[in-house]
Amino acid sequence: MASLLQDQLTTDQDLLLMQEGMPMRKVRSKSWKKLRYFRLQNDGMTVWHARQARGSAKPSFSISDVDTIRNGHDSELLRSLAEELPLEQGFTVVFHGRRSNLDLVANSVEEAQMWMRGLQLLVDLVTSMDHQERLDQYRQDGVRVGMDQEYAFSLFQAADTSQSGTLEGEEFVQFYKALTKRAEVQELFESFSADGQKLTLLEFLDFLREEQKERDCTSELALELIDHYEPSDSGKLRHVLSMDGFLSYLCSKDGDIFNPACLPIYQDMTQPLNHYFICSSHNTYLVGDQLCGQSSVEGYIRALKRGCRCVEVDVWDGPSGEPVVYHGHTLTSRILFKDVVATVAQYAFQTSDYPVILSLETHCSWEQQQTMARHLTEILGEQLLSTTLDGVLPTQLPSPEELRRRILVKGKKLTLEEDLEYEEEEAEPELEESELALESQFETEPEPQEQNLQSKDKKKKSKPILCPALSSLVIYLKSVSFRSFTHSKEHYHFYEISSFSETKAKRLIKEAGNEFVQHNTWQLSRVYPSGLRTDSSNYNPQELWNAGCQMVAMNMQTAGLEMDICDGHFRQNGGCGYVLKPDFLRDIQSSFHPERPISPFKAQTLLIQVISGQQLPKVDKTKEGSIVDPLVKVQIFGVRLDTARQETNYVENNGFNPYWGETLCFRVLVPELAMLRFVVMDYDWKSRNDFIGQYTLPWTCMQQGYRHIHLLSKDGISLRPASIFVYICIQEDLEGDES
């Protein structure tokens, strides 16, 4: 594939012209539009830019960082400048993670098309490279990942047998082998190999069963792995695994810490919605802070593409009768409600087929609520769930499977029974005072300014707060205010959902943890960040999941530990945004209390030997010659008693192949709820240690044995080939149930 890339760079007309470079207008806002000279580098992997054709250039982006290319018509920013800049000449480079999009306008339609075709070709080529090819590409520059210069030079001198100062043919092969040698893997290989040269089928099978704890592994499966990972044809024919094949297996998805059986959809998707944790976003329209941040449909695109299944829409009266979305009573910018709905329609099911929930916070007048209802029905069409699945009053929430590719509206509602009979042409324009009071009793807790608006409306006895046309679109997810668990049991139904601030939810867990667990077995709960988090920071979702809260809404625009836990949790089950809760969080008579977990939970002990690291990137690439001093921190998140952390010592001046060989030990009471986070830090005795990379996964998705952990950046983007090599062993406690 790497040779195919080189072939394309010398033959493809688009790529040849891109390597010559050309001027394009870089657009950041309505007021910031500047001419820059863009050029594809000869390696085909990076694009650089300069202020003028022969000016000082600097890297603009790497092809491996690009997610997709969009044309100008799909750019929110370029559409807003359509009268000034021709959309046909514009395109957008969309990056993985949270990096802002790059909007560019070429000098002609042909040039724009050329860059779009060329970039997409390169993205496809890089995406299709296998692990070994990427590894080879990265290894060509050991210094880039923090190899000690003296060590690298000593390897170079040893390989330069001709003493010519350059490496030719076999000399380069020997240097490459020395550079990439994994002594700790060689030692492991030789401990299972009778002759130290190869693993026979039986030897490899012993390794898989004894060390990798794959007890059910058969000779047929071991043979499949040899056939897949052994590079030599003769090895495949003889059913043996060479050292190269063994290392290839250990670096693959089969040798990964994350169990490949948990990657596809492997859970029962036919249970009621309230039996699942649901990936949820808070104030989805914001891509910055909560007070002055930008509102953008990009927030919805990013959330939906990462598997989020519940997005929030705060809707207010806008000019010209068109409702707008923004964070009310702040300086955040505004976007049209209909643009949000159109974006959801386009991106809802690109990552997952399972239902998307639109969490509406409606602050609009009667007229604009009608406009909202019209946009929802006209734009979403068949995707919108506008009646119960069978047209009669249900007895429990439908399952994700039954709701595949459907969009549900969560919001305030008159009554479910009224809406099943409701026909818009028969609806009265006003509600009786008693009906207003009834609605007021069951609506979600309004903000103070909303209460004032409602009281004025009621005094005037004019049009009702809630428009029947919009109410009728709320089918299974009627928003109601929470008073107490007893009140909910006596007055509420399974199709009603309460929202809790993180502060209130955490207090309830401490005061009535078991009641909260039981509440969440029959009704949905949504938790949202405290209003004090104006910087869009996050809370740890684990504490709320422990009580069975299904929709723990996160500020997805903000990277950090909390989003690592969220991303790690929803990485399983096909990344579909739904994870089945453990059975003790689905049993309506559950005795589980997240603060005081007792039997029938069997504690487990986890032993982690942190062995080595591979090609850890520099933290500060601007400092010439800076090399990392890496250490590994392992964190456990789960019930409060299980939350723990330990770390290794640091290795001085070695990011290329540091060796730790240290064992960490954890004891966990409720493994079904535990998450593990591995963090590699750069030790700094003068200040806080710097973050290098992390990987987070559920305990239940962890494979035992010798495993590689492939690190992710703060944004959750792969840092391949950066990894750590560990040995995992889980032991069941012998003394039995906890008390």
From TrEMBL:
Region described as Disordered: spans on this chain: 420-460
Cofactor(s) of this protein: Ca(2+)
Residue intervals of the PH domain: 16-124
Cellular component GO terms, alphabetical: endoplasmic reticulum; nucleus; plasma membrane
Membrane topology summary: Peripheral membrane protein
Subcellular location: Cytoplasm; Endoplasmic reticulum; Membrane; Nucleus
Superkingdom per UniProt: Eukaryota
All copies of domain C2, residue ranges: 586-713
Key words of the record: Calcium, Cytoplasm, Endoplasmic reticulum, Hydrolase, Lipid degradation, Lipid metabolism, Membrane, Metal-binding, Nucleus, Repeat, Transducer
Gene3D superfamilies linked to this entry: C2 domain, EF-hand, Phosphatidylinositol (PI) phosphodiesterase, Pleckstrin-homology domain (PH domain)/Phosphotyrosine-binding domain (PTB)
Reactions that this protein is recorded to catalyse: a 1,2-diacyl-sn-glycero-3-phospho-(1D-myo-inositol-4,5-bisphosphate) + H2O = 1D-myo-inositol 1,4,5-trisphosphate + a 1,2-diacyl-sn-glycerol + H(+); a 1,2-diacyl-sn-glycero-3-phospho-(1D-myo-inositol) + H2O = 1D-myo-inositol 1-phosphate + a 1,2-diacyl-sn-glycerol + H(+)
Enzyme class: hydrolase
InterPro entries, per the entry: C2_dom, C2_domain_sf, EF-hand-dom_pair, EF_Hand_1_Ca_BS, EF_hand_dom, PH-like_dom_sf, PH_domain, PI-PLC_fam
GO molecular function: calcium ion binding; phosphatidylinositol phospholipase C activity; phosphatidylinositol-4,5-bisphosphate phospholipase C activity
Every EF-hand domain range: 147-182
Function: Hydrolyzes the phosphatidylinositol 4,5-bisphosphate (PIP2) to generate 2 second messenger molecules diacylglycerol (DAG) and inositol 1,4,5-trisphosphate (IP3). DAG mediates the activation of protein kinase C (PKC), while IP3 releases Ca(2+) from intracellular stores. Required for acrosome reaction in sperm during fertilization, probably by acting as an important enzyme for intracellular Ca(2+) mobilization in the zona pellucida-induced acrosome reaction. May play a role in cell growth. Modulates the liver regeneration in cooperation with nuclear PKC.
Protein's name according to its UniProt entry: Phosphoinositide phospholipase C
Organism of provenance: Pongo abelii (Sumatran orangutan)
